[in-house]
Amino acid sequence: MSATNERHEIMTAQRNDDSFPTLWDELEWRGLVHVSTDPGALSELLEGDPFTYYCGFDPTAPSLHLGNLVQLLLLRRLQLKGHMPLGLVGGSTGLIGDPRPTAERTLNSRDTVEEWVSRLQAQVSRFLSADGDNAMRLVNNLDWTAPLSAIDFLREIGKHFRVGTMLKKDAVAARLNSEAGISYTEFSYQILQGYDFLELNRQYGCVLQSGGSDQWGNLISGTDLIRKVEGKSAHAIGTPLITNSDGTKFGKSEGNAIWLDPEMCSPFAFYQFWLNQADADVIDRLKVFTFMSRAEIAEYETQVADEPFKRAAQKRLALEVTTLVHGSVATQGAIDASGALFGRGDLTTLDELTLAGATSELPQAVGTPGAQIAQLMVEAELVTSLGEARRAIKQGGVYINNVAVTAEDQELVAADLLHGKYAVLRRGKKTLAGVTAKAD
């Protein structure tokens, strides 16, 4: 099956849960609403005639990440209701970047931003349907900001913003109280985002914007601007920032974001991330990141309470989200690799891309045929010394590609290097390392 056909099948299977009286009720149950302009009006809006709504994604990196996935799935849920999504990738705002809490962003070159715009547009397109009367439309705010002169911008847009109000926005206030301060460039970001909403309202009749709750000040800058300039009402939804049950930021793995691009976060690593979710978090993750029904999720909630050792909810979560993002073929590869790494499958059956992705997540040693496996164990930090490595081998607890190492002085041979490049060292049942052949 082609990737296009598979994506179509995935999207065709997606449904909102009709056990809820309204879509707004479902969004609240799933924990997708942290703040909004008017819950009652929004609920009525969602149940009424089709309308246009949008979310913006700035190209400040070459890929979207899990925080963006929350927005994409919210956009998709509204599209399933019959409403018309605009996916905005910010060719102009990406040249500036919204204010971070601590320091100025490094400005990327125009060529870099342009490239990243294309990459993000392709990613956004994968999660929204381009078919039917409410087909997704991609827009770029550079189209309406580039022709605008600085004088026109200040006269027509800037005059509607009050500095006192702008200073109260959370991101701005945080920066003003930091040692770094804030530049006029980043201070102006909220005006640009407000202008985006105004232009989309004018061009497409767009009446709703969604974003993370940390962007709330920027979201309502648009609703306020539309009210002042056009005399119309518009709405905003701020989704909660997803955190773990211990209060730590969700979507980070050892300091690195979980990206949607398979070249930046392999399907194997992506699958493992979801598989390792804590019992206290997994049900909330199922609500936010899958299209599973309330009834299905309730069954997994019972299993988590009664049989947590089976990790059934985590396995279903990893399956659903990895399939959503990377497709079923890559997901099955990740599942096969996960089993094979821990001795429950044949590593030789894994294709090179899957094996490379799986081993890249492990501690590493570099070796060539003739290298002693005991020494490779030391280099990969599976043990602290050669003596410890030899004792582990003697005790029968060391494996190369799931085959027991039987001699303390056993050497790596060419046949051990799968696809001529990779091998997997294992000590005991769960301690793994990758061996990669030296480059010529």
From TrEMBL:
A molecular function (GO) term: tyrosine-tRNA ligase activity
Motif ('HIGH' region): 59-68
Domain Tyrosine--tRNA ligase SYY-like C-terminal: 361-431
Entries under Pfam families matching the protein: SYY_C-terminal, tRNA-synt_1b
Catalytic activity from the UniProt record: tRNA(Tyr) + L-tyrosine + ATP = L-tyrosyl-tRNA(Tyr) + AMP + diphosphate + H(+)
Signal sequence interval, chain numbering: none
Keywords: Aminoacyl-tRNA synthetase, ATP-binding, Cytoplasm, Ligase, Nucleotide-binding, Protein biosynthesis, RNA-binding
GO cellular component: cytosol
Positions of ATP binding: K252
Protein's cellular compartments: Cytoplasm
UniProt binding sites for L-tyrosine: Y54, Y189, Q193
Placement of sequence motif 'KMSKS' region: 249-253
Alphabetical GO biological process terms: tyrosyl-tRNA aminoacylation
Entry EC number(s): 6.1.1.1
CDD domains for this protein: S4, TyrRS_core
Family indicated by similarity: Belongs to the class-I aminoacyl-tRNA synthetase family. TyrS type 1 subfamily.
Assembly, per entry: Homodimer.
Protein task: Catalyzes the attachment of tyrosine to tRNA(Tyr) in a two-step reaction: tyrosine is first activated by ATP to form Tyr-AMP and then transferred to the acceptor end of tRNA(Tyr).
Listed PANTHER family: TYROSINE--TRNA LIGASE, MITOCHONDRIAL, TYROSYL-TRNA SYNTHETASE
Protein name: Tyrosine--tRNA ligase
Organism field: Leucobacter exalbidus
